[in-house]
TrEMBL record:
PANTHER family: DUF262 DOMAIN-CONTAINING PROTEIN (PTHR35149:SF2), SLL5132 PROTEIN (PTHR35149). Residues 201-441 form the DUF7834 domain. The lineage of its organism: Bacteria, Bacillati, Actinomycetota, Actinomycetes, Micrococcales. Residues 17-189 form the GmrSD restriction endonucleases N-terminal domain. This is DUF262 domain-containing protein. Pfam families: DUF7834, GmrSD_N. InterPro entries: DUF7834, GmrSD_N. It comes from Arthrobacter vasquezii.
């Protein structure tokens, strides 16, 4: 159902909105504002607050003078609850501030600690910072609280369609943290876990929150999204919220075609078959590669989170394994690791920034190869994929992402490792990949160390 243009979007005061008893769903990220962000909100409101302003009519309320942006709400008709999709950080900060102002107006200025609270938690640090600011403010706490409740407004957007709520989610919270595509995916897949226990959902949220945003963004934007596109001979534009449908996956309701039912059944069967196999790290890794095929749809819900956990670990392992080859010519050539743009923890190395795109291209190709064929002919595959990717670096003085994109998405399967591997039935078919080491005639000294290594690898 679309947002009701008359009732679904309206302006309300902060007081009326907070009095609605809104619900924070489990998929929302924990409170994460830093004190500086909360104090900026405090100062912005305080600047708009004019307690001595004369009014045309003394019996008339002061006109609202400050707008605090919009909140996106989802009306859950089954639970009869209104969920906050966007605006949680702002609303919780305002709630803390109003509580502190109320206590100050009654003469209580000391903030007592809550039993077992973590002093390093963002919510505790923000509350302490706001309390200090309230303690030293010159204005009347009661009047300031009244201004926030009655004279500050928020644009209230409500829909009963959860997908629509996330589509209209403002990409930039008020002075807060931008919503990334993987945040929406987390919310979507948690909603698909209605049959799971609350403890399971909470554990998944906690596990997700322990992974830095940069790692999740890199997994989807730099690797999974590009692989999905390049294997089909398609360019991979910057991954954004418009593209998350590619990772929403299958549900029992949506699996209406034979192909969808096949993939759904496969996801169910693989864990059961793996239970009969003797467990080892390699056996478990192979089982997960089998279950989480990159070019196959994922199953919505818990399986999605298990896929993300595996892919994050797989990418880290391949970062180590993919660059562990040493020179084989009595030390005359630099080891592969000298041409990686990051260290083992994926921290960018400024001195090797020029290798960023080819490093990412190589690891994406290696991730896809091992996802398809495991460790079969692994040493030969790494040499060929490394040469195929890194020859771009020796061919161009300035290498841009658009060039990499065109190179990787070529429909000629002898030119694109991704297109070739998608149709390959055996690992040895990778030998059909055209590999030609090119240097720059106008710059004879351009990447000489890399040229020597590639020449040897290409034979």
């Amino acid at each position: 159902m679309a947002i009701d243009r008359e009732k679904g979007v309206r302006v309300v005061t902060v007081g009326k909105l907070l009095d609605e008893g809104l619900f924070i769903p489990s998929y929302q990220r924990p409170y994460s504002w830093e004190p500086v962000t909360a104090l900026q909100l405090f100062d912005d409101i305080r600047e708009a607050f004019e307690p001595g302003k004369a009014l045309p009519d003394a019996g008339q309320a002061q006109e609202p003078s400050y707008v605090l942006g919009a909140v996106i709400l989802h009306r859950d008709n089954e639970d009869v609850q209104t969920h906050v999709v966007d605006g949680q950080q702002r609303l919780l900060t305002l709630t803390m501030l109003l509580d502190l102002l109320h206590e100050a107006s009654e003469g209580r200025t000391e903030v007592l600690p809550i039993e077992h609270e973590d002093p390093a938690a963002p919510v505790v640090r923000v509350r302490a910072a706001l309390a200090r600011r309230v303690r030293y403010m010159e204005e009347s706490p009661g009047a300031f609280a009244g201004f926030i409740r009655d004279n500050c407004e928020i644009i209230r957007v409500e829909t009963d369609d959860p997908d629509e709520a996330f589509r209209v989610f403002d990409s930039q919270n008020y002075r807060g943290k931008p919503l990334l595509p993987h945040d929406l995916l987390k919310a979507y897949h948690l909603r698909e876990m209605s049959g799971e226990s609350d403890s399971m959902r909470e554990a998944l949220v906690e596990g997700w929150q322990n992974v830095p945003d940069a790692e999740l963004d890199r997994l989807f934007s730099t690797y999974l999204w590009r692989i999905k596109r390049w294997t089909r001979g398609l360019s991979a534009p910057t991954f954004s919220t418009r593209h998350i449908d590619s990772f929403k996956g299958l549900t029992p309701k949506s699996a209406s075609t034979p192909a969808a039912r096949y993939h759904l059944a496969a996801h169910t069967a693989v864990p059961m078959l793996a239970a009969w196999v003797e467990h080892s790290d390699e056996a478990d890794r192979m089982a997960k590669r089998t279950r989480f095929q990159i070019d196959a749809p994922v199953v919505a819900g818990r399986s999605f989170f298990e896929m993300v956990t595996f892919m994050l670990a797989e990418l880290r392992r391949l970062r180590d394994e993919g660059f562990d080859e040493q020179d084989g010519d009595e030390g005359k050539e630099k080891p592969w690791s000298q041409f990686a743009s990051t260290d083992d923890d994926f921290r960018e190395l400024p001195s090797r920034a020029r290798y960023r795109y080819v490093s990412e291209l190589y690891l994406a190709a290696l991730l896809y190869y091992t996802n398809r064929f495991g460790d079969v002919e692994n040493r030969e595959a790494k040499s060929r994929l490394f040469t195929w990717a890194y020859t771009l670096r020796t061919s161009y003085q300035r290498l841009q992402l658009v060039t990499v994109n065109n190179y990787a998405s070529s429909l000629d399967d002898s030119r694109s490792a991704f297109v070739l591997l998608r149709s390959a039935e055996t690992a040895t078919e990778l030998r059909r990949l055209h590999v030609e080491v090119k240097g720059r005639d106008d710059t004879p000294k351009h990447e000489q160390d890399l040229m020597r290594l590639l020449d040897r690898l290409a034979g």
